[in-house]
Amino acid sequence: MDYNTGRNHLVLPEYGRNIQKMVNHVKTVEDKEERNRLAKAIIQIMGNMNPHLRDVADFTHKLWDHLAVISNFELNVESPYPEPDKAVLYQKPEHIGYKKSDDIRFKHYGKSLQEMIKKAVAYEDGEEKDFLIETLATQMKKSYVIWNRENAVDDQIFADLVSLSRNELKIPEGLRLKDVRDLVSKKTPTSSKKAFSKGKYQSKGRKR
């Protein structure tokens, strides 16, 4: 049996093995004019494989570049475009330095909430600030439930909120957050679909 694993390596597999064989054959042709004629014929075939790209700018240029790559830059033909630089083509990309998030103290709350707490610190004391603190604490509890549902207690949330504010925020006296069961939605798309199929959300004015 002739398996692909035993065949020669395809430089650009998207063009298939037949194109690779054609290019390898052209490399063996001694007559330069014949090589040029065959190279143009291969370009036509390669273009026919992607007819939806014919109107794309520089499409033909890209085909000639691919032809050079398939031939391992050993195809001595007159291309209408300059041959791509082999060294640049195979050059490894520079390493991308990702921004570190070491400044996130509690990763389960996220950086956005940490930034919102900084904004809350700047608010003047009053009902608006108390409401903002309650809203932040509620969001923190929702996030905490996802991370560790068993220990999502108000005292822990309040302690983390004060810590993230660097002791700049004070928890309003008597503040209590919603129970974990109230923060986690019990409805699912499946249950809603069943309710709709039973006519629960059917318009009252419509008769079945």
Number of beta strands: 0
Q: Sum up the overall morphology in one term.
A: rod-shaped
Q: What about the largest sheet? A: none
Content-based structural category: mainly alpha
What does the average pLDDT come to? Answer: 81
H and E string: HHHHHHHHH
Alpha-carbon distance between the two ends? 66 Å
Number of helices: 9
Number of domains: 2
User: Which percent bin holds the helix content?
Assistant: 40-55%
Report the β-strand fraction as a percent range: under 5%
The gyration radius over C-alpha positions equals 33 Å
**What multimeric state do the chains show?**
single chain
Give an overview in words.
The chain has helices at 16-28, 32-48, 59-70, 86-89, 111-121, 127-147, 154-164, 180-183, 189-197. The protein has 208 residues and is mainly α. It has two domains: 4-89, no CATH class; 111-184, no CATH class.
How would you concisely characterize the structure shown here?
This protein has 208 residues and is mainly α.
